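Example record

One chain of 169 residues, shown exactly as stored in the release files.
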Amino acid sequence: METKRLQILDANASDIDTIIEIESHKDNRDYLWIGTYEEHLAEITDPNHVLWVFKTKETAKIIGYALGRLDKASEIFELRRIAIVEKGLGYGREVMQEILRYAFETLKMNRFWLDVYPDNEIGIKLYESLGMTREGVLRQNYKSERGFLDQIIYAMLLEEYQQMSNLFY
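Predicted structure tokens for this chain:
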């Protein structure tokens, strides 16, 4: 996959250390789970997961990654993690639009969903601007170093994507 400025590529084992660095980055670590090398390696080989890295076309530098889980029987794409280290440049919007397109148009999914912590204001603003629906809150659903955290569920259905996709491109 690609966007105007990025290539979105399947991750391989040699990318895992960079993925863990992105997860551990000070601007990302409070908003997502930091996986182990073994967990990411298993995701690469699992047909029910996708693990992608985002490289700039200009420099071929990895500036982010995403992890998705597929429920093919129910036609559901769960975006489990997405992180970018070069903030404020619009890469997140570019990648999200392409991942939505891929999920709905290529994989033929009916539902796309993710969860986000309430203090991830940038992520929430992005998901809402893309037309995703806030479905609810899983209260104190995750225990972290920061305490018990709520998780807000955002989702988009195929019919909603079809109505919104003309605004993306």
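Notes: The radius of gyration is 15 Å.
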